[in-house]
Model the fold of this input.
Amino acid sequence: MTVSLSSGVIIARCSPARLTFGLVGFLLLASLLSLSTGAAGLGPGELLRALLGEGLSARDRVVLYDIRLPRLALGLAVGAALALSGVLLQGLFRNPLADPGIVGVSAGAGLGAVLAIVLGGLLPAGLAAIFGTWLVPVAAGLGGWATTLLLYRVATNGRRTEVATMLLAGIALSALAGAATGVLTYIADDRQLRDLTFWGMGSLAGATWTKLAAAAPLIGFALLLAPRLARGLNALALGEAQAAHMGTDVQRLKRLAIFATAAAAGASVAVSGGIGFIGLVVPHLLRQVQGPDHRRLLPNAAMLGGALLVLADLVSRSIVAPAELPIGIITALIGAPVFLWMLLHNLHLRGR
Amino acid sequence: MLEIQDLHIRLGRRSVLEGVSLQARAGEVLAICGANGAGKSTLLKAVLGEVPALGLVRLNGLDVARCGAAELARTRAVLPQETEVAFTFTLGEIVAMGLEAGDFFDRPDVRTLALQAVGLAEREGDAFHSLSGGERQRGHLARVMAQVWEPVGPQGPRWLLLDEPVSSLDLGHQLQVMRLARGFADAGGGVVAVMHDLNLSAMFSDSVAFLIDGRLAAHGAPSEVLQTDLLERAYGCRITPDRIPATGPWFLPQTCEPPLGGGVPGMVMSRSY
Done:
């Protein structure tokens, strides 16, 4: 299994079965590590006993079922959603540098979430009740959707995406969403400010089953929809016109891909704040190992994204234990250098 | 049968095509020729439904404007002038995309056969980006041919629509590609190719549609259409036809001076640095 850069000649690729096997193993390992590590002292031994069906103390049971399991599940869901939205955005823009955090989709989703937190109280009681805990994720999804749509209009002409245009448009959209978020923060009252601060920390801390239930429908929708877009996204790598000649309904593909991106990015932003670079690093790593075929890239990215975010969360809460480092710092420490490296490499290849 | 009826296209204020009507039969190669900007590629795009056009285009009796993308993809494959490939797909993966777009998704052998046809079988595992310009053009041709691998399907003849298929190829590969197109037509499929090279058009096509300024100036057998006066009017330069038995006419431009009838102006070099 050798890995070749795009300037290389012959490409050797990891066999699909072996890669899937490895990813599942990695996912399980990360999950078990995450479940058996923490401040409350529930270690691998107790975890093993719990798995074998032996009794746990009441305290350990609360730690496992109400703190660590929801945190693990949220980490997996958010990691999968971030990686998935990265793959979808990159396929849509035909460019490996598109990441929801970098091109402003997360900022747009954040604006949606803040709008819901600050102005949600103004909704008629009946309407607010219908949405309930889903109000913030749905608003974030709508914010992400509007941003992606706008970005697509600005940054690509269908044949190719200029990297500079895409990144600059991302900066502009992020700034715009940030300004609007600032205005909303300014007019928020004390209780809303507390909510906002809590939300904006970008962390899996405070994960609950309720939070997971709020994000799960949107993320699940994106996970189910994405594989149906894989063949079309492959064809789209040859440009919109060629994809159409090869039988893809391009308008429908774009609509659905933007929709799924927004649902995944929006839901993850709504429950965990902005965690960056997962959507950039995971697809990049996988393309090096298995190639760019979206039929395998989409499910594999969901698995690797979940596993990596759970590991990053593990580091963030054990490195300065019992305190916690925001997880966004960990992902940025790994992701930002990778992004810079890719940017250099990408410019070297003249935007290819 | 490909039928084009009274096609008008305006891009902005400019009229690019004015009332073009022509037919192409399966089993034949139709070359669309003309000077730069005469409307050749636009005509092909109209046949593909890529540009909004006034008029009717029917492929095998189906109104192209009303067909779904998937249905059309099984009937015809399209080679554009340039295709940029995003991400590091291998040549084999690119050809497989064509395979899956048509009726041959259950024929993995076609992938190798198509690559063999364009002489790139050994490069199947190479990164597409690492190929040279000419190899990429042939790689895309292999993909396009894999999409319509059998020239005649259950729904009737299949079609190859090629936009300057030999523009970046050397002499030997130009002949190789034109022979493939000829073979596709001889086996019952239809080929429409936008061509710049009059010699190749004369050698390989059954009919030539010649466009001047968005109008169909002539349409018929190559030897009837490719007449010296028409070509000099179209290209604005003197042309010396030469006939070699069995292969048809060869056209050699003699000189571009003086310009004829306001066609191509004399070369004016004005650079200020």
